[in-house]
Amino acid sequence: MTSPRPRSGRDQDEEPGLGPTRLRDLTIIGLITAVTVFILVRYNYGSLPPMPLLAGLVLYILAALEVVIAFIVRTRVASRDVGRARGQLHPLTAARVLALAKASAILGALAVGVWAGLLAFLWTQHDLSAADHDRPGAIIGVVGGIVLVAAALWLEYCCRAPDDPTDDAVGGHPGPA
Fold first, then answer.
1. Could you list the residue ranges that cross the membrane (predicted)?
2. pLDDT of 130-146, one tens digit each?
């Protein structure tokens, strides 16, 4: 039997579990996706069908739904209306909403990467009328991905539990012993 590896001071301060989504991670996902899509589109653009103008519309719909959910969750969390009683926000539902927010942030980063890679290719094509036709749809898609990431990060923020009151906030007196 081996003894556990000693942990550094930094490792001891961090709690295990799910942390907030980092913009850095989403940016890396988007950049890798954009480069990959740019390369794929560069060699296969001639075989792709024309892109509909509103191909990225679903991203806006998802973002709108997440904003509505965020308002509901924020209201419930702010009023401390989270629990198992009827009419309260169940903790498992809050966890599911948080998982939805994290997945949507990743989906939004992927969408930004796909549409940005396509748009980068389309801006290099000045002599193709198909590229001129596809450019507005790609712009709508990039903006939709950014809106989805923003909505997902805000929803994730709304799922945070309010801080516990400190002794100073309660009046400096500890509770009865």
1. 26-45, 51-73, 94-124, 136-155
2. 888 899 999 999 999 99
Half-sphere exposure of 173 (CA within 13 A, CB side): 4
C-beta of residue 151 within 8 angstroms of C-beta of residue 66 = yes
Q: What is the pTM of this model?
A: 0.80
What residues does each domain of the chain span? 30-161
List helix spans (H) across 45-128: 57-78, 91-124
CA distance 164 to 30: 36
CB 142 within 8 A of CB 148: no
What pLDDT does 62 receive?
97
Whether residue 64 is predicted with pLDDT greater than 80 in this model: the reply is: yes
What is the C-alpha separation between 155 and 159, in angstroms, rounded? 6
Q: Inter-axis angle of helices 23-44 and 91-124, to 10 degrees? A: 40
> Rounded CA gap, 10 and 17, in Å?
15
Q: How far apart are CA 52 and CA 96, in angstroms?
A: 33
129-158 helix and 91-124 helix, angle to the nearest 10 degrees: 160
Q: Which of 114, 103, 102, 107 is nearest to 141 (CA)?
A: 114
Whole-angstrom distance, CA of residue 62 vs CA of residue 112? 14
